[in-house]
Every structure is written in structure tokens, then in C-alpha cells.
Amino acid sequence: MKKKLESFLVCADFSNDIPVLVVGTKVENDINIINAFQGEEARELYRKLTIKGESK
């Protein structure tokens, strides 16, 4: 059985007072929201995902 290609989508909105980061998946034409983060947690996750070479 051939495994379907799955992509992760991350959307960040820092234009309002409370920042929001949303994580979802896309399988074929279906988009499913997995989780959403707000405030300082959204900023920290965004930073971890976008700064190169930062790993533990």
C-alpha cells in the first residue's frame, strides 16, 4: 500500500495584540488543524521553527 504524502502547515499572525500560531496537516486536498498556540508560546514556537541552527 502506497503511503500518502503529508505536509505540515504553519501559519503565524503577529499583527494583533495576541500573537497566534496554527499548525495543521495537508493530505491530498484535506487540511486539518492539529493545534493552535497564542501569546508567548506562539512567539517561542515561531522562533524555534525559524531560527537556523538552533537544536538541542
Structure in words:
The protein has 56 residues and is of the alpha+beta class. The chain has one domain (6-50). The protein is built from 1 helix and 3 strands. The chain has one helix at 40-50, and strands spanning 6-13, 20-27, 30-38. It has a 3-stranded antiparallel beta sheet with strand order 1-2-3. A hairpin with a 6-residue loop joins strand 1 and strand 2. The chain is flat and about 45 Å long. 2% of the residues are buried.
Write a compact overview of the structure shown.
The protein is of the alpha+beta class and 56 residues long. The chain has one helix spanning 40-50, and strands at 6-13, 20-27, 30-38.
| Tally of individual helices | 1
Query: What is the residue-averaged pLDDT?
Result: 89
| Biggest sheet overview | 3 strands, antiparallel
Secondary-structure element sequence? Answer: EEEH
SS content category: alpha+beta
Give, in spatial order, the strands making up the sheet with the most strands.
1-2-3
The number of distinct structural domains comes to 1
How large is the share of residues in beta strands? 35-45%
Poorly predicted ranges (pLDDT <50, ≥5 residues)? none
What general form does the structure show?
Answer: flat
What integer value in Å does the Rg equal? 14 Å
The amount of helix comes to 10-25%
Number of strands: 3
Measured distance between first and last alpha carbons: 36 Å
